[in-house]
Design brief:
The chain starts with 9 loop residues before the first helix and ends in a 10-residue tail after the last strand. It is globular, with a radius of gyration of 20 Å. With 346 residues, it is α+β, with helices and mostly antiparallel strands. Helix 2 packs parallel to helix 3. It binds magnesium ion.
């Protein structure tokens, strides 16, 4: 606990700082708890060939979502997929979810049916069973908490802490799109507030809007890695932004990293819209977050196995810890990477 008895504001620690602070005295009493707090999901063993993976995530109206532009069906879908993404980030297969929510009287049965329809749609798509949860009332808005349970062969679980010097740093898909989708939605909300007669102008933004409103968990990547015979040395999903995720892997693995700016995969729509908003597309990828792609490291020897997969991009390599965590800019200059990921307390 903090030594001084004065009040400390939550924002002074930030999300990661707060988790670290509150959990530093957590002790593990059971040998079946293989991995507790600190990765994308916890790992539990029950004595067979499989490990059980557990992860949970809470979504709060006004903090994580804005119902003025997020349809409830999409919100339900996303609430499930972002949790499944954390199971995938452990190289696991999601199997079950529990769903709990608190809703204020502002929400009708029909509204919650919409939310549920989105959740069930995601469950069907990912072959996951909804097995329980809790419902209660809230004095303000909607709060959703989802717990996902998955499994993996015990020698195939991938943690954040296994990256080695000289490993290649890879990412699936492309980055920054979800953030640019959010910028478009925020812009249209602003315009609408000013003049409610204007129709939202969302034409030509279909890809980035889908990235924001209906993200997928990359279970297909987990299956592909398996097929290719590649077990990453470390893995994390990109929920808070590339910079923040790279730092997690480097800190937990005790290595440094060189990330090449010109290798960061960007969709043309992300790039164009970023320019339109006078944003640096690289910064959108580094700090935007919510892409739910998988960021992972592999030994150089596995490069041949992945080099022809269009969905994978090698974006850098791991170095000695003493070299630090650096972005090699297009001009060839080196810049330390700092975390500017999502901080729910700001
Ligand atoms: Mg994660």
């Amino acid at each position: 606990m903090l030594e001084n008895k004065e009040r400390t504001e939550l924002k002074t620690l930030g999300e990661f700082g707060l988790i670290k602070h509150l959990t530093e005295h957590v002790e593990i009493y059971n040998p079946s708890s293989v991995k507790g707090i600190g990765d994308d999901a916890a790992v539990i063993k029950y004595g067979n060939e499989k490990h059980t993976l557990v992860t949970t995530d809470m979504l709060v109206e006004g903090v994580h979502f804005d119902l003025t532009y997020v349809p409830l069906k999409h919100l339900g879908y996303k609430a499930i997929t972002v949790n499944l993404s954390d199971i995938c980030a452990m190289n696991g297969t999601p199997k079950q979810v529990t769903v709990s929510y608190a809703a204020s009287s502002r929400f009708s049965v029909e509204a919650l049916e919409e939310l549920y329809a989105g959740m069930l749609f995601a469950c069907k798509k990912y072959n996951v069973d909804l097995i329980g949860g809790d419902t209660t009332s809230s004095t303000s808005g909607l709060i959703i908490s989802v717990t996902a349970i998955g499994e993996a062969d015990k020698d195939k679980v991938v943690y954040r802490n296994g990256a080695k010097e000289k490993d290649l740093l890879c990412v699936s898909g492309d980055l920054g799109g979800a953030y640019m989708g959010l910028q478009v939605l925020e812009r249209e909300k602003f315009v609408f507030k000013d003049n409610p007669n204007l129709q939202p102008d969302l034409v030509g933004n279909d890809y980035i809007l889908e990235r924001q409103l209906k993200p997928e968990a990359r279970l297909d990547i987990v299956e592909l890695l398996q097929k290719l015979g590649v077990t990453p040395t470390s893995m994390i999903d990109v929920s808070d932004g590339l910079a923040s995720e790279i730092i997690h892997i480097c800190e937990q693995s005790g290595v440094g990293c060189e990330l090449y700016e010109d290798k960061i995969p960007l969709d043309p729509q992300t790039f164009d819209r970023a320019r339109e908003f006078s944003l640096d597309p690289t910064v959108c990828a580094l700090s935007g977050g919510e892409d739910y792609e998988l960021l992972f490291t592999i030994p150089m020897a596995d490069y041949e196995k992945i080099k022809n997969v269009p969905d994978f991009t090698v974006i850098g390599h791991m170095t000695a810890k003493s070299s630090g965590i650096n972005l090699i800019a297009k001009a060839g200059t080196s810049h330390p990477i700092t975390a500017q990921g999502w901080n729910a307390f700001q």
